[in-house]
């Protein structure tokens, strides 16, 4: 690696986030007396990264475009709750889960279209719009439709997919853990997101709009169309992710994702995405999600009360916002 490439790498936030991840893992491994790298602990951490990591990909592309989406947990909850209820009442998904997934994707797409239409046509603050639609979608789920928890009666197809795994491991005490098949969807979404951001006109449009929307419009990008497609797609993917969570947890609980955005958004910011738009990468985001997953799953290993997780999440927000502000000031100078 030449000096110019090394200099570029060391100026990127994700490089330091990855270093923090490595150092943190080393420290926890020492303090926990070798428990962090036990096979079952590693598999557990990777499992917890699936849903949060996939939501982080949605948040990343939105933040690169200069926006915020607070409604993705509510979209996912409405999509998977309604899809599971319909499948249960109609007797679908007893052999496979794909009908439920398709239904959730369609519902998520429609809900995302509402976000996209409002944001693209009225040019309102994305945080305010999605905060409003978040409340609206939650009201539909809990109030208008009164969707209930589904646990023991979950369609067999969902349960079967959730129980499928790639391999199993055992720790020194004989405790068994399995790597869920859902992990493949996480990897696939990361690859797809990276390809879109780095190799397509749509990805370049997102960076351009996030950098300067007026300049992007002058450069020939159809900002209104890009934003509408962006939020519609995020809604569809959120519905898909919601169904993955249902399969993994083997239960459909409408309130299960309440407040999840307060973990995902700080992680994406910590991973190098700028709160002002135009910055962010898949590698940095995955590294940040890994840090949060390692910390949340290793607290008991090092004898720290899990209530400290809120403290850590708050610290992540402060650090992430500070880093974004410093990056923005450097770019201006």
Question: What attributes characterize this protein structure?
Answer:
two-stranded antiparallel sheet, 14 helices, mainly alpha, 333 residues
What does this structure look like?
With 333 residues, the chain is mostly helical. Helix content is 71%, strand content 3%. The protein has a domain at 42-257. It has helices spanning 3-10, 13-31, 39-64, 72-90, 98-122, 126-144, 156-163, 183-199, 201-211, 213-218, 223-249, 261-270, 282-298, 308-332; strands at 165-170, 176-180. Strands 1-2 form a two-stranded antiparallel sheet. Strand 1 and strand 2 form a beta hairpin. Helix 3 (39-64) packs across helix 13 (282-298). The protein is globular.
In short:
The protein has helices at residues 3-10, 13-31, 39-64, 72-90, 98-122, 126-144, 156-163, 183-199, 201-211, 213-218, 223-249, 261-270, 282-298, 308-332; strands at 165-170, 176-180.
Give me the secondary-structure topology:
Elements: H1 3-10, H2 13-31, H3 39-64, H4 72-90, H5 98-122, H6 126-144, H7 156-163, E1 165-170, E2 176-180, H8 183-199, H9 201-211, H10 213-218, H11 223-249, H12 261-270, H13 282-298, H14 308-332
Antiparallel strand pairs: 1-2
Helix pairs in contact: 2-13, 3-8, 3-9, 3-11, 3-12, 3-13, 4-5, 4-6, 4-11, 5-6, 5-11, 7-11, 8-9, 12-13, 12-14
Number of strands: 2
Radius of gyration based on Cα positions: 20 Å
Instruction: Output the strand order for the largest sheet.
Output: 1-2
The proportion of residues in beta strands is under 5%
Please tally the helical runs, counting DSSP H or I stretches of 4 or more residues. 14
Mean pLDDT: 90
> Helicity level, as a percent range?
over 70%
Unreliable sequence segments: none
Shape: globular
> Helix/strand-derived class?
mainly alpha
How would a textbook summarize the main sheet? 2 strands, antiparallel
Order of helices and strands: HHHHHHHEEHHHHHHH
Beginning-to-end CA distance, first to last residue: 28 Å
């Amino acid at each position: 690696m030449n000096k110019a490439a090394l200099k570029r790498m060391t100026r990127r936030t994700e490089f330091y986030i990855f270093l923090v991840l490595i150092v943190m893992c080393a420290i926890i491994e020492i303090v926990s007396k070798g428990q962090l790298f036990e096979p079952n602990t590693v598999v557990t951490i990777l499992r917890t990264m699936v849903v949060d990591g996939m939501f982080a990909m949605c948040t990343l592309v939105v933040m690169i475009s200069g926006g915020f989406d607070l409604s993705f947990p509510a979209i996912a909850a409405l999509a998977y709750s309604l899809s599971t209820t319909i499948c249960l009442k109609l007797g679908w998904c007893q052999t496979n889960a794909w009908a439920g997934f398709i239904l959730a994707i369609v519902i998520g797409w429609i809900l995302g279209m509402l976000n996209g239409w409002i944001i693209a046509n009225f040019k309102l603050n994305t945080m305010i719009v999605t905060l409003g639609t978040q409340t609206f979608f939650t009201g539909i789920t809990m109030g208008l439709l009164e969707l209930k928890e589904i646990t023991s009666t979950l369609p067999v197809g969902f349960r079967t997919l959730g129980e499928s795994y790639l391999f199993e491991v055992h720790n020194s005490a004989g405790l068994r853990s399995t790597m869920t098949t859902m992990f493949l969807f996480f990897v696939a979404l990361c690859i797809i997101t990276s390809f879109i951001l780095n190799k397509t006109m749509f990805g370049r449009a997102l960076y351009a709009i996030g950098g300067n929307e007026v300049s992007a419009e002058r450069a020939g990008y159809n900002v209104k169309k890009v934003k509408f497609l962006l939020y519609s797609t995020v809604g569809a993917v959120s519905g898909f992710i919601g169904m993955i969570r249902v399969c993994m947890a083997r239960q459909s609980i409408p309130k299960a994702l309440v407040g999840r955005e307060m973990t995902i958004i700080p992680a994406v910011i910590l991973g190098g995405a700028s709160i002002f738009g135009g910055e962010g990468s898949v590698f940095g985001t995955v590294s940040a999600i890994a840090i949060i997953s390692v910390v949340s799953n290793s607290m008991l290993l090092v004898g720290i009360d899990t209530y400290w997780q809120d403290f850590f999440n708050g610290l992540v927000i402060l650090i992430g916002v500070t880093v974004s502000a410093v990056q923005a000031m450097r770019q201006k100078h």
